Here is the input.
Amino acid sequence: RDLRVTDHQPLVTAAEQGLVCALYIVEPMLWAEPDVSRRHYEFLTECLAQLRADLAALGLPLCLRVGEALAVFKTLHHTHPISCIHAHQETGNWWTFQRDQAVLRWARQAGIVVQEAQHHGVVRRLSNRDGWSRLWYAYMNQSLAEVGPCTAVQGIQSDALPSAAALGLAADG
Here is the structure.
């Protein structure tokens, strides 16, 4: 859900390691959750348009897929073997947490490395809260990650971006 190229450590790391597929998955089940709305989706579509342009400037197309994340990853892995998934740590709702856990389990079983970078002040997986502010300040004082040119994986097709109505999102009232 991090729709930017500026200060995007996972993108920097992926570009340094080789071929990159910049993937965004529109998950219809997520858009059926009670904490999202048509307004959220319309904002997302605007952000995706800007992201597509920003990635193109780096020589990287945006691959858009529609479906369940796990199924999308399995399909992509079958046609274009994945060696590593680079992402920012997600801090979403219970639905996204369960989705992420399923993807992580599959990736481990498939021998795919998953590298999740921190992208905010929340420090995950601490055994207690002692010293969290030291970690927060250390993170906040880091230099911005600068993305350079990327080499794209070839031959991956994108799906069409569904309309809000196709996802069952009614007008916000």
About this structure: The chain has five helices and six strands.
